[in-house]
Amino acid sequence: MAVGPLYLIYSGNQSYLIPQFWGLFAFISILTLIVLIAILVGQAIDPEMYAQYFMGATVFKLLACLIFILVFVLKHKVDKAVFMGNFFYLYFLNTAFEVYVLLRNLRNQNLK
Question: 19 φ, ψ to 5°?
Fold first, then answer.
């Protein structure tokens, strides 16, 4: 996920990244890790409630990200189009990673 932004930095196109990009990257990555751990722990406790754990964790992640956007945009002067591009790049890639990990986990469970 960091390859694209690193390429932009080294190719001289830093105008496509907000100055606080790596903080945003860390926040969304840590949030995704927390969500994945919560879902997997919930699944270990009660496998039949997996869908509810997944939906609850996804709603939590979405609300946490929306609150983060609100606070970030109010505190920092950034180009809103660049910020939204950076945010959605990170959010959707982390969400795709989250779904991939969870589907692999379920696929392995179904083989047993």
Answer: -60, -30
Angstrom distance (rounded) from CA 29 to CA 89: 12
State the CB neighbour count (10 A cutoff) for residue 55.
11
- 3-class DSSP string for the chain: CCHHHHHHHHCCCHHHCCCCHHHHHHHHHHHHHHHHHHHHHHHHHCHHHHHHHHHHHHHHHHHHHHHHHHHHHHHCCCCHHHHHHHHHHHHHHHHHHHHHHHHHHHHHHHHC
Does the pLDDT value for residue 64 go beyond 90? yes
Contacts of 17 (CB under 8 A, 6+ apart): 5, 8, 9, 82, 86
pTM (2 decimals)? 0.79
Cα first-last separation, the chain: 32
Q: How far apart are CA 67 and CA 44, in angstroms?
A: 30
